[in-house]
Amino acid sequence: MERLASLGRLSAGIAHEVRNPLTGVSLLLDELHDRLLSQPTDQALIRRALGEIERLEELVGELLNFAAHPQVTLEPGAIGEVLRDTLFLVKKQCQRAGVAVVEEVGENLPGLLLDARKLKQAFLNLFTNALDAMPQGGTLRVSADCLERQLRVIISDSGEGMPAERIPLIFEPFYTSKGEGTGLGLAITHNIVSEHGGRIEVESRLDHGSTFTLLFPLPGSA
């Protein structure tokens, strides 16, 4: 644990050091782009370079967020409200992708000690992954209910699914099968759920979709 903590601090330090020169290079390329009004081919190359810098800056930002690992602030709240707020954010994206949303979130769920902002981030990561798994459209199902003094949230998709050997790896930092992205989304989601005293279970089959089950202990159930 000590070595992992040291590695986290080292990663954060490196990320900070990388971010500063990236910002400088980006500003210089912007200036150069504006000076080459008569050279559209060169401007196109600069725009591509700026796009790659944006990707690096996104990676650095996520690395800093993961390394800093800010603690959640738990307050009484309604998980159903957080789920609905997060689904609202991806509503248009679902429509464009031809994904139908089936919501089965109870109205009278018990309250939970939660950090709404962090949980929204975790749910958004799971919804985004589900959409990525359904490039030809499909169905996203979101439900919440109570199960044996636990609050259960189930997020499932009808997408591409995963082979069994991939499932133990998906919460590892920087693991991704998409060929793009940082591979930190599910690792951050796992951390957020863990900090709420919960756990995540995953079921998936190739061509049959994936199901993520999040289990949170209710207050007084310990």
TrEMBL record:
Record's keyword terms, sorted: ATP-binding, Kinase, Nucleotide-binding, Phosphoprotein, Transferase, Two-component regulatory system
Domain Histidine kinase: 13-220
Enzyme class label: transferase
CDD domains cross-referenced by the UniProt entry: HATPase (cd00075), HisKA (cd00082)
Enzyme nomenclature, EC number: 2.7.13.3
Known catalytic reactions: ATP + protein L-histidine = ADP + protein N-phospho-L-histidine
Gene3D superfamilies linked to this entry: 1.10.287.130, Histidine kinase-like ATPase, C-terminal domain
PANTHER family linked to this entry: PEROXIDE STRESS-ACTIVATED HISTIDINE KINASE MAK3, SENSOR HISTIDINE KINASE
Protein name, per record: histidine kinase
The organism of origin for this protein: Desulfuromonas versatilis
